Amino acid sequence: MLKTFKLGGVHPAENKLSADKAIEKLALPKSVFIPIAQHIGAPAQALVKKGDQVKVGQLIAQAGGFVSANIHSSVSGTVKKVDMAPDASGYPKQGIFIDVEGDEWMESIHTGDDLVTDFQADSKAIIDKINVAGVVGLGGATFPTHVKLMPPQGMKAEMLIINGVECEPYLTSDHRLMLEKGSEIMVGIRLLMCALQVNKAYVGIENNKKDAIAHLRNLVSADSSIEVVPLKVKYPQGGEKQLIKAVTGREVPSGALPIAVGAVVSNVGTAFAVYEAVQKNKPLIERVVTITGKSVKKPSNFLVRVGTPVQDLVDAAGGLPEDTGKIISGGPMMGKAIASLEVPVTKGTSGITIMPAPEAKREVMKSCIRCGRCVTVCPMGLEPYYLMTVSDKQIWDKAETNRVMDCIECGSCSYTCPADRPLLDYIRLGKGKVGQIIRSRKK
Amino acid sequence: MSKLLTISPSPHVHTSDSVNKIMYRVLLALLPALVWSVFMFGLDAVRVTLLAVVSCMAFEYLIQRFIMKEVPKITDGSAALTGILLAFNVPASIPSWIIITGALVAIGVGKLSFGGLGNNPFNPALVGRVFLLISFPVQMTSWPVSQHAAVDALTTATPLGILKEGVKSGQPVSALMDSLPSGMDLLYGNMSGSMGEISALLLLLGFGYMLWKKVITFHIPVFVLGTIFVFQGILWMVNPENFIEPVFHLLTGGAMLGAIYMATDMVTSPMTHRGQFIYAAGIGVITVLIRNFGAYPEGISFAILIMNGFTPLINSYVKPKRFGGTN
User: Fold this and answer.
1) Which of A258, B68, B196, B208 is deepest in the core (most CB within 10 A)?
2) Is Protein biosynthesis there in the keyword field (chain B) (predicted)?
3) What is the pLDDT of residue A58?
């Protein structure tokens, strides 16, 4: 029996169209737009102004606090302006526009592809380098990695869990990275273990990536401190709490962080970024992005510089299909629909999914037939139908006592509802309002 | 860019399942039992089923269109399902005007007066059935003889009826066994009764289909039948002369039809598996109590309706197991 989490879960069609497409370097864009807030926490402070010359890897925005991250230039060229433009959220965000000229890297960065395995076992030095390089969680939440590596007072990490689940349908960037950069990821994992001062790491991978499981197992065969854990395919296993439950059987209490059960979770992409940051002095300026969709001519995995417009990816994948109805930054379960192809790829962009028009439209909502399927599939053990009702009727105290804040917004409820009810839309509304109420109470 | 893109919050994909599919799959699951009742009761079964289905759909259409003034939703299959379940719950010899009246009560009172599909607290088909049973007790308990039976009679008694009368008149259960159908007859449905309830085997076949298609989960039917089995089993062990062995109760009356197709009505049953356990156990206990100690020989309709009434209460007090919680 393969391990998995117990409560709820769904299994949407996997559609991993680009699983066997090797990672290709995307051609340099003509210009980039690099938002200064690509992470959870305070936005970074821009250090450059119009007309400045920058190199690849140069710090262009400084972390704006402890929970924040440095931003580096992903290209060389001239700063055109520092201005607002919409990112994937649809809202205008402050960012730095750079016209690309050549490809000149900072001298401090080792650009070779050679594998560097040796490192000094100095937790603080490793965390510093990760901090300087602006590494954030690449699974989608973009939480600054150095913060995660410094548990709050009195908390102690017992283990590192590496997230190679990639439970989102369509996306394959983590899968390809594990296949092609397995050795580097292993060094990254050892660096993270050293930084956290733990001597056990698990790599959770869903069983639809058997080649990645075999490859990584092969790489760690001599090392008993790292264990590859194959997992039953079930969404949302890539959710932090679900992954911890699946791998260790421990449940993170409501409202607590994973560290409460001794776990720190990082994505495989993050482990690779940590390797590059520490061993190569390379800041987080590029990442693997899947471009995919049923009508896309060439579903692919590209290594993309941060700030590259989505348009460039779409062009490289054979252009925008005729029947396009929706463009999603991310996968179809948790991704954000974007309004324009000028939106930039950021640190958190794991993929671009293009949906054909017939699939893009939502069905009309019907009456709830109280089948209870939303309750059965909720991985947090909530009652989505009830939370929807109390959010709609604005009964916020009921929403709070029925744990609306526990919702991880995985979308399993809306996905599964036979009456096409937009459960998650309403629950988000309730979460927002209840979150406000809780914050105002603390003041 | 000239294309108009759809912008909506996640998730952007949806299961292929829908309310219509659920309804039509339940209808399909009921088909074998319907064929059996036509075999047993001939054209009368066709007449009653057609009347019930057509009048349920017609009343739904008319009420939604002209009284509620909304777009009629008869194509969702729920009215047809109510019709077929109502037909399954009456004798095949029932006069046409009575079944049409039942359809009006089921759809009009049982369902649409509460706002339509999803809002009715009680199973509409059972509301119709119980209304008919109380209003027209004679017609509702005159059981036609199967067209294949060798006896020369027009009506007969149901196995539960024979049992009830016998026990009431002071006979021990062992003395009644000869007048009751054999185990095999009970299993495949060679007995009299309401149209759709007699063949336990074919009803179970439909259950298997619904489990396979994930229309329902096993919980409610298994808990209902399990409770009947255990409770009746205890009574039987205490006094086998007064109480018949439990398998008899699983195969007779509306036990199978009720447990598999009526108690599982999504609208009127609890949302969580824990709640469903309480609900189903209640149905089982009340059924056994009515069958053994009540005035009627059969009581699962009442049992389901009573527990339907408890469903909102169960939903508000029985919460699912929370992730990272103690309850």
Assistant:
1) B196
2) no
3) 95
Cis-peptide, bond into residue A236, ω within 30° of zero:
yes
Report the C-alpha gap between A198 and B71 in whole angstroms. 63
Q: What is the DSSP string of A191-203?
A: HHHHHHT-S-EEE
Of the candidates A328, A371, A420, which has its C-beta nearest B266's C-beta?
A371
B323 touches chain A (CB under 8 A): yes
A90–B323: do the CB atoms touch at under 8 Å?
A: no
Tell whether the model's pLDDT for residue B307 goes beyond 80. Answer: yes
Q: Do B267 and A361 touch (CB under 8 A)?
A: no
- Residue carrying structure tokens 């007790």: B137
Residues of chain A below pLDDT 50: none
What confidence score (pLDDT) does residue A140 get? 78
Q: Please give the DSSP secondary-structure letter assigned to residue B109.
A: I
Residue with tokens 């066709």, as numbered in its chain: B46
Angle, in degrees to the nearest 10, between helices B43-62 and B19-41? 150
| Residue B316 and residue A383 in contact, taking contact as beta carbons nearer than 8 Å | no
**What gap in Å lies between CA A80 and CA B233, rounded to an integer?**
84
Is the link from the previous residue into B320 a cis peptide, with omega within 30 of 0? Answer: no
Tell if the CB–CB gap between A12 and B118 is shorter than 8 Å: no
pLDDT on residue B150:
67
Model pLDDT for residues B218-259, shown as the tens digit of each residue: 999 999 999 999 999 999 999 998 899 999 999 988 899 999
Q: Give yes or no for residue B194 having a pLDDT over 80.
A: yes
d(CA A242, CA A409): 13
CA A204 to chain centre: 15
User: Do the chains contact at A375 and B17, CB–CB below 8 Å?
Assistant: no
Segments in A100-207 forming alpha helices (H): 123-132, 145-148, 173-180, 182-196
pLDDT confidence bin for B105, thresholds 50/70/90: very high
Residue holding tokens 């009246």?
A: B101
**Smallest Cα distance from B62 to chain A, Å:** 19
Pairwise CB contact (< 8 Å): B76 & A340? no
From A429, A208, A235, A207, select the one nearest A332 (Cα to Cα): A235
pTM: 0.91
Angle at B111 between CA B106 and CA B115, to 5 degrees: 155
Q: How far apart are CA A244 and CA B129, in angstroms?
A: 51
> Which residue ranges of A make up the annotated binding site?
368, 371, 374, 378, 407, 410, 413, 417
Q: Which residues of A touch B22 (CB under 8 A)?
A: 369, 371, 418
The CA distance from B106 to B265, in Å, is 14
Smallest Cβ–Cβ distance between A324 and the set B3, B9, B325 belongs to B3
pLDDT digits (tens, 9 = 90+) for B37-61: 999 898 999 999 999 999 999 999 9
Dmax over CA atoms of chain A, in Å, equals 64
Alpha helix positions (H), A197-284: 210-220, 240-248, 268-279
Could you say which DSSP state residue A36 is in?
A: S
Query: Which pair of tokens denotes residue A419?
Result: 């009456």
Minimum distance, in Å, between the CA of residue B321 and any CA atom of chain A: 6
Provide the pLDDT for residue A302: 96
Instruction: State the Cα–Cα distance between residues A36 and A60, nearest whole angstrom.
Output: 9
Q: What does the alpha-carbon distance between residue A168 and residue A154 come to, in Å, rounded to a whole number?
A: 35
User: Could you tell me the pLDDT band of residue B327, with boundaries at 50, 70 and 90?
Assistant: very low
In angstroms, the CA A294 to CA B293 distance is 63
When pLDDT is cut at 50, 70 and 90, the band that residue B167 belongs to is confident
pLDDT for residue B326: 57
Domains and CATH numbers, chain A: 28-109+283-359 (3.10.20.600), 123-279 (3.40.50.11540), 373-442 (no CATH)
Distance CA B89, CA B110 (A): 15
> CA of B166, closest CA in chain A: separation in Å?
42
Measure CB to CB from residue A369 to each of B266, B320, B321 and give the nearest one: B266
